[in-house]
Structure formats: C-alpha cells, structure tokens
Design goal:
This protein is of the alpha/beta class. It folds into 2 domains: 188 residues, 3-Layer(aba) Sandwich (Rossmann fold), CATH 3.40.50.720; 152 residues, Dihydrodipicolinate Reductase, domain 2. It is 39% helix and 27% strand. Helix 6 runs parallel beside helix 9. The radius of gyration is 21 Å and the shape is globular. The termini are far apart. The structure holds nicotinamide-adenine-dinucleotide (NAD). Nicotinamide-adenine-dinucleotide binds next to helix 1.
C-alpha cells in the first residue's frame, strides 16, 4: 500500500485532541509515512513532541516564532501527501489555496472558508490541479444522523417541512481556547456550520434565504467583542425552514462541552436526536457528572493488546475517509503516465464529489454562514442566496 506524508497546519485544540491521535493510529496501520506539524511558535511544536513521545513529529518553525512557517512546511512536503488545515477559520482559504497550488491533497477543518467567493476560488483551483479537498464535517459519520439521511433519501419520511438544531458550547471556548480569534468568528459560523451541512447532507436541498440575529452580553463584559449566541432561520429551495440556535457561553460546569441536537418534521414523519445525551453517562470523583458521548472520539482498550489505547468514533472516521480516498487516488494512478493519471484523478474526484464534502458540497455551509453574518450585522435583515449561492440583501 502507498503511504502518505501528512502535514498538519495548526497545533491547537483539534490537532491535539483528534487529528494527531487519528493520524498516529493510521500511521501504525501503515497508511502514513511521515507526520509534520506547522504552527506559529516553536513552543507549540515542543509541547506536541512531549504530548506524543512515541512518534517522530517533525515541526515548523524550527525555532522561536514564524507565522509563515506553514508555507515552508507545505513546500517541503513530499508527495504523495495530504495537508490538514486546522487553524482559525479566517486562515483556511489562504492556506488551502497555497496547498492546492503546490498540488497537495487537502483536509480542511470545517468550515471550508468564510466566503462564497473563496469557496469558488478553492473549488476552481482544486479542479485545475485535480486534487482532493475535503472539509472535515465529522457529523456526517455520526450513525444517528446518517440513519436520518438513509430514511429521508429512501423516501420513508416524505418531504421535509421544517426543523431545528441547537449547538452550544462551554464558555471556555471563547474565553480560553479561541480568545485570540473568536472576535473574527461567531457561534453561527464556528458551530452552526455543522447542522447547516447536516440539513443539506440529509435532504440535498439548497439554501435560498437566511435571517439571523446575535447577542453580545457576557463576552463583552470580559473584554471580548464577540457574539455570545446567534440564531438563524434558513429557508431552503423547497420552502422548508431550519431554525438554528448556537452559543458558546454555557457555564463551565455544564456536564459536557457541547449541548446539541437535531430535529426535522417531514410530511411522513419526524426525526429527533439529542446528540449530547447518549444515555451513557459517568459520575466520577475526578470529573464529576459527565454527559458522555461514546460515539464522537474516545479512547478504548485496543482489541490487539489491552496495554494499548485505540481511539474510535465519528471524529476519526471522517479524517480516515479522506486519508483512504487519497490513498485510493494515489494507488490507482501510480503506474500511469501523466495524462492518464490526470484523467483518472478527474474521474475519481467526480465520483467522490457526489457523496463527500468536497468543495461543491462544502460551499453550502459557507454560503449560509456568510449570509448569516451579513444578516446579523444588519440586525436580522433578510439575506438571499442566488442560484450560485452568492448572498445579497435585496
Ligand atoms: N471538525 C470539528 O468538529 C472541529 C472541532 C473544533 C475545531 N474545528 C476547527 O478547527 C480549526 C482549529 O480549531 P482549534 O480548536 O484547533 O483552534 P485553536 O485556536 O485551539 O488552534 C488553532 C491553531 O492554529 C495555530 N495558528 C494560528 N495562526 C497560524 C499560522 N499563521 N500558522 C500556523 N498555525 C497557526 C494556532 O497557533 C493554534 O495552534 C478551526 O477552523 C475550527 O473551526 C473543527
């Protein structure tokens, strides 16, 4: 089997908690040859090396600070390769375009980017270079939500009329983890994108109108000019409406990081899921009461040796799907000449884009969050999406 060289850009929360454990596990399975991380400071790299002592993580910058070290890392990554972008949302577009320009396959943490214009730039550039650009919408791998897609697409639920989704996180996210960049984002963009994509994933419908509002009360009292909460009404092209409620100021004592759930009412039935409370909860002296979601991404004893730990869940499954796709592309093109390899890659990508969040699908989430932001700054003024998904007021 061919092995990929993986370069992760950004050494923050998601890299430590999900991406690196997943990549390291895939390396043990023989799918990855090297792991490189590029962040802004050497200090972050040293922390990661200490956190994952069993793997030989190479890191950039090699000393002190360099907010452009990611460019060197991308240029020096040998093919076959995959670049994983796990930096603040507003940096995704520039980094993805640079990686594509250097002909690497790419995984971008959701959202793909923040504007429809950037999404088209990424889409067109990926088509030109014929590379795979996957947005990590891991909820597509949550079997509860996937089951809803199955019944909906098989016609068992009829046609969707309306729905609601709620996604709220503890205040440690803007106060601690994203303090440096939360003013450039909002709960609507950072969290809302998940269930916007989910509505699209289940129904295949396109958004046509967004009305959104946000509130600023708690975070401003901590000197942070960011929304505490945001709500949106999204109208889809069959007239269905999704109400989306997001916030990131839940108390620190909330028994899980994210309260979340999803409901849709259809002409022949409804779906209702609490995606936080999976009825498998712990109470321990160490952590107190904990709403435990075993399906996201949790450590388990490895079946091959109870001395080892295995991570499992939809958080990993999504990344693994992209790695496996890139291995398939590499395997199926390795013995072909340049022209045939180009054609084969085009063919494989046009198959993948029917079912995966490649740019043609990830643009849906981008269009709604861009429209939502435009609506919020005008205190709920309706924003319409044209047939190419560009948002406009009138
Ligand atoms: N798939 C998911 O469900 C999921 C979950 C959490 C976060 N995310 C997304 O992942 C991304 C990162 O989130 P996070 O939680 O790790 O955030 P974070 O703030 O903890 O980490 C961001 C990292 O990017 C680094 N960075 C910033 N500027 C950089 C630059 N110029 N060059 C290199 N590195 C740079 C920071 O130093 C930090 O290490 C965001 O887009 C977020 O929306 C996705």
């Amino acid at each position: 089997m061919v092995k990929l060289n993986v370069t992760v850009i950004g050494g923050g929360m998601i890299t430590r908690q999900v991406i690196l454990p997943t990549i390291i596990q895939e390396k043990k399975k023989g799918k990855i040859s090297s792991i490189v991380v590029a962040s802004r400071t050497r200090d972050t790299i040293e922390q990661l090396i200490k956190l994952f002592p069993d793997v030989n993580i190479k890191g950039y910058p090699e000393k002190d600070q360099d907010s452009h070290a990611w460019k060197t890392a991308i240029k020096e990554t040998e093919k076959p390769s995959i670049i994983i972008i796990a930096t603040p949302d507003d940096l995704h577009a520039e980094m993805a375009l640079f990686a594509i320009e250097h002909s690497h396959h790419v995984i971008v943490q959701k959202p793909l980017c923040l504007t429809v214009n950037d999404a088209y730039n990424i889409m067109n550039s990926a088509k030109e270079k014929v590379v795979y650009v996957f947005t990590d919408y891991h909820k597509r791998h949550d079997l509860s939500l996937r089951a809803c897609q199955y019944k909906y697409r098989k016609g068992e639920m009829g046609e969707v009329l309306c729905g609601h989704a709620w996604h709220e996180q503890r205040r440690e996210i803007p106060l601690k983890y994203f303090r440096k960049w939360c003013e450039k984002s909002s709960p609507f963009e950072y969290l809302g994108t998940h269930y916007i994509d989910m509505f699209y994933f289940i129904t295949g419908l396109k958004p046509v109108k967004v009305v959104a509002q946000g509130q600023k009360k708690l975070l401003v009292s901590h000197g942070i000019n960011a929304f505490d909460s945001c709500e949106g009404m999204i109208t889809w092209n069959n007239g269905a409406v999704l109400y989306l409620q997001t916030s990131w100021i839940l108390p620190e004592k909330n028994p899980c990081l994210s309260n979340q759930g999803f409901q849709i009412t259809c002409t022949e039935g409804e779906f209702r899921a609490d995606n936080a409370n999976r009825n498998s909860n712990f109470s321990t002296t160490k952590d107190g009461y904990e709403l435990f979601n075993p399906y996201f991404f949790k450590p388990y004893l490895d079946w091959n040796s109870f001395e080892d730990t295995e991570y499992a869940g939809y958080g990993a499954d999504s990344i693994v799907q992209a790695i496996d796709d890139c291995i398939k592309i590499t395997e199926q093109t390795k013995n072909l000449n340049k022209e045939l390899a180009f054609e084969k890659r085009q063919k494989l990508l046009s198959e993948f884009e029917k079912t995966r969040p490649l740019p043609n699908q990830a643009i849906i989430g981008v269009s709604v969050i861009e429209a939502g932001k435009m609506s919020m700054i005008k205190e709920g003024k309706p924003v319409f999406l044209d047939d190419k998904l560009f948002p406009h007021y009138d």
